[in-house]
Amino acid sequence: MADLRRGLGDFVTGQGKLVAPLYLNEPDTKFTPEQEKQKYKAAILLTGDAAAEFLSAVEAKFEEWINVVKTATGKKPRKVKKNIQWLTADTERWDDIGESASKMLDSLEPGDAIFKTSTKAYRAQRDGTFQPAGPKIFDAQGQYLTEVPPIGFGTQAKLAGSFYGYTASGVANMTLLLSAVQIIELREPGAGGGGQAASDFGFAPTEGFVAESMTPAASDYDF
Hints:
By secondary structure, this protein is of the alpha+beta class. It has helices at 48-73, 99-106; strands spanning 5-12, 16-28, 39-46, 78-79, 86-88, 113-120, 122-124, 130-132, 136-138, 156-168, 171-185.
């Protein structure tokens, strides 16, 4: 039977910390030099209630997808054991888990969860060319950023996108497609990967310059 693919609805995460993989300023080209395969990526670490609520929503969507596949094929599909897009301290290690993934899981405390999202960096056109794409970036006030500052690990943000279920060789999986990012507290790339925020220098919020506003609006993504 042919592989199945289906959109499963939209999502908005709670506020969390951006962690690796993080490619919001430029697409990830490390293993995909071909334009049509390049992606922007963002992983978010959620804790407490935000983690519990979104994890519950993700797992419910995945079970919904499993049931869709079961109805379509007449049998319950096998679930993917690796390369899943949501990770907790209880996630089962897979046989060929890499060092970075292993360290990521080891770093999680009970109640923490990491969610990995991505989106295509280029969209194929009918004439065979590729049009640049990528997520929309907004500031804390919901203003669209026409010029995106360097976004580093530790940035506080929310992610918006959609769930997308698919099967491959009889195995069911679900990915989280990234549509937009709201930057709550920016951390630029820096020594140690954490960057520094204005508060690290003793600055406090005040009236004055904020990022220029342009369409689209953050409200389009339910931020």
